[in-house]
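User: Can you write out an input/output pair for a complex, sequences first and structure second?

Assistant: Here is one pair. Inputs:
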Amino acid sequence: MAIFSVYVVNKAGGLIYQLDSYAPRAEAEKTFSYPLDLLLKLHDERVLVAFGQRDGIRVGHAVLAINGVDVNGKYTADGKEVLEYLGNPANYPVSIRFGRPRLTSNEKLMLASMFHSLFAIGSQLSPEQGSSGIEMLETDTFKLHCFQTLTGIKFVVLADPRQAGIDSLLRKIYEIYSDFALKNPFYSLEMPIRTFPHGGQPSPCARPLRNQRAAKTGTVELQEKTMLTRPTRSNPEEKSQRALIWSDSTPLTNLLMA
Amino acid sequence: MSRQANRGTESKKMSSELFTLTYGALVTQLCKDYENDEDVNKQLDKMGYNIGVRLIEDFLARSNVGRCHDFRETADVIAKVAFKMYLGITPSITNWSPAGDEFSLILENNPLVDFVELPDNHSSLIYSNLLCGVLRGALEMVQMAVEAKFVQDTLKGDGVTEIRMRFIRRIEDNLPAGEE
């Protein structure tokens, strides 16, 4: 199913849930020996290629993984600083994966609240009175579908432009939200939805469902991919940002996996 | 929380007795915890409100009803869809005020009070006051301020149970964009 991302935005425009389920296509992995023939620079807490475009590696691409270990910001998953690590001849040969930098949690928060405003502007621009806000936004590579409930919560789905049945998916997500977020007595309204309330223990209802679904539909591989795209926990600063919106295993994950 | 994701609008079978008994246990515990009935009523209303603000999403997600354009439509949806869905009863709507901002829901058979007899020392207890809170909370989330109160109760010897609903105002501040 070509669903790329799901966002849930609360009444005030805050992002309360986000899920990505795609592997970026434009990625290049290459093994390098010392000295590195690319110029890397630190920009906006990320290590970007500044000079030396070659073999599918483009200026502006970020370092995504080193020797198969994910990179998060300027640190690797095991806590080493990327530039320092690559500056040390002892670490070579090294295999580095480059790609378009992914959105950070904070960028997602920002973009979600911007979309919230655009939605409102959309309805104000309308020549007719009583128009809804933006329900769909089309680009070459994806379509953004937005469903606003009567109470003002927005469910946003990014999907393949040819993907059908998004309307029913949005309704379904609304049902899941009302079941699994709102019926959890410890969930407070308008707050980020987390399904790992107690230090990484998945809620009892999420896990059997997840395993059962995966076993039934044979989507384990896809699940692993999603895990790879997840930010890692090494950097404490990133971790706290992450805690704002990331949740690892939710009914929604199950839905998208199914 | 063990709710299966593919539940549709059809309600799942569950024991109504267990539900009635659970509610009874809740009210009696409140009666033990609070000195006077007024406080219990207030507490029930507060609990109902907290249920209502969450329940409305469940209701909207499953019932596919759109926005109501007047209070009469709202009354219909409450009686015929909401009560049917959550309590399995369909109260009748009567006693409209001339201005159309007040009506009564008549519950012939209130499932909350199936086994209940109100003792003498709790004469001012409004046993099912939770329902008023639920209605108030749910409607508040769809930008309608209402007042809901019991005016007749079978527990107190009346023939029927009557909830009086009064429309106060539309909460314009909370209106989401594109819903004017």
